[in-house]
UniProtKB/TrEMBL annotation:
SMART domains: HTH_MARR. Keywords: DNA-binding, Transcription, Transcription regulation. This is MarR family transcriptional regulator. The keyword DNA-binding applies. It comes from the Bacteria. It holds the Pfam family MarR. Residues 2-134 form the HTH marR-type domain. It comes from Candidatus Aphodenecus pullistercoris. One of its GO terms (molecular function) is DNA-binding transcription factor activity. SUPFAM superfamilies: Winged helix' DNA-binding domain.
Length: 144
């Protein structure tokens, strides 16, 4: 049986998620929260809107995750100086530590996933996945 591209992407995502889930739980993070921490670790303090745009998710979802992360001591939420309706998110020491642990484990996972790939193949895979993403994002999918 030959799997479709969609099935292969789905299986790969779930296999990776299954390996990373115990760490996520150990760190006390919910689904989607590690990506917020690593974004802030890489980009510094950011608005919720910028994060929603970066991840292509609803701003309300970012707000809900940020509220939980704030309550659990991973980040702080302050009013954005330019827009009182907008919140600025910044990692706490606990959030920075969790982000670093997560990034290290993801780098290890990536190394394992790409075992046996040449540098050229790795670059090509990244290029093709970016192209797939942009095709979906820019073209959308017809609903029906």
């Amino acid at each position: 049986m030959t799997l479709t591209l969609h099935q292969l992407l789905f299986r790969t995502f779930h296999a990776q998620n299954n390996v990373l889930q115990p760490l996520r739980e150990e760190l006390g993070l919910g689904r989607g929260q590690p990506k917020m921490l690593t974004y802030l670790a890489d980009h510094g303090p950011s608005s919720q809107g910028a994060m929603a745009n970066h991840f292509d998710i609803d701003p309300a979802a970012v707000s809900r995750m940020a509220e939980t992360l704030s309550q659990n001591g991973f980040l702080t939420r302050t009013e954005d100086e330019g827009d009182r309706r907008s919140k600025r998110l910044e990692l706490t020491a606990k959030g920075q530590n969790a982000a670093e642990i997560w990034k290290e484990r993801c780098a290890s996972m990536e190394s394992r996933m790409l075992d046996g790939f040449s540098e050229e193949e790795k670059s090509e895979l990244v290029r093709l996945l970016n192209r797939l993403y942009l095709n979906v994002r820019n073209g959308g999918l017809e609903r029906g």
